[in-house]
Design brief:
Chain lengths: 156, 156
DNA sequence: ATTGAAAGAGTCTCAGT
DNA sequence: ACTGAGACTCTTTCAAT
């Protein structure tokens, strides 16, 4: 399915560093990895062209912005085949930030970010319940997020 | 707990734009939002100082890097009070990228990113099972990720 | 608080190795 | 494929409003 990309140790090191902090200059990153800034530049350009690097995103503290409630929702479908149509409806709800089709107990798994419990209640009760094909849902509200990081990427 | 931050519409607009694409120049973003590049600069500096903006991160295609398997793990603890000690152990496992203490069925909820099923099996069987305090786990393997985006942030 | 311009720092290109 | 230097663009500072 996916092409055989020829990434070496340096490519993985660059990705690892910049996944945590994309603001570092090419010159500084080059020093850290014992190559020139020019080489870092060439590698990043290659990684962008082959689609491995998709861009850079601002990392924000959602709590500080008033988004205090994170919840996970396990969704049971009436029929598994309804996945695509239900996913299409769920996509329209801006509070839903992530959606996965999963094996196991639930048919789908969603993550919701809200300002408060009132808004979560609105999403669960008003938005979700009117979507055809959803049998029932189970909600897990996050009381504490103890970890949120990137995976450690390594070559073979 | 958190300070009353005085963020206006412009702050929220800047955050919204840069959550998706942090590479845009201050001048271009200023044009888009009808202010000068200097104003964008002042606002971002303010947002960094008050901790709302934590930095920028490279967005990568994990599948292209060979990380094909995303799984969610519901964890049942023997006692809820074991949360901190179990979280400390789970933190040591690099494949675990996210960990939440939740209400509902499970005590904790983890997300795992692996190269293949073999590696997932290793995490579940060898790493997780030897942690004291975990009663049992339920695993949900993602067959398809249909959505992964940022929440839409708005002021009051 | 916002602006525009000048100074400083970083990115990008390219010829040489 | 890597390097270093020059051209170019962006960030950062600051005086004026």
């Amino acid at each position: 399915m996916s092409y055989k990309l020829n990434l070496d140790k340096l490519d993985f090191q660059i990705i690892q560093e910049m996944m945590e902090n994309a603001e570092i200059s090419y010159a500084d990153l080059g020093k850290k990895l014992f190559v020139s800034g020019g080489t870092i530049h060439v590698r990043i350009k290659k990684l962008e062209e082959c689609g491995v690097v998709k861009g850079t995103r601002l990392s924000v503290d959602l709590k500080a912005l008033g988004y205090d409630v994170i919840a996970f929702i396990g969704i049971f479908l009436e029929k598994s085949s309804l996945y695509d149509t239900v996913a299409k409806e769920l996509r329209k709800i801006p509070e839903i930030v992530r959606l996965n089709y999963t094996t196991g107990n639930y048919s789908m798994f969603a993550e919701v970010v809200c300002k408060d419990i009132k808004q979560l209640r609105f999403v669960l009760h008003d938005e979700l319940q009117k979507i055809k094909g959803i049998e029932r849902t189970e909600t897990f509200i996050s009381l504490d997020e103890s970890l949120n990081r990137n995976v450690v990427v390594v070559g073979e």
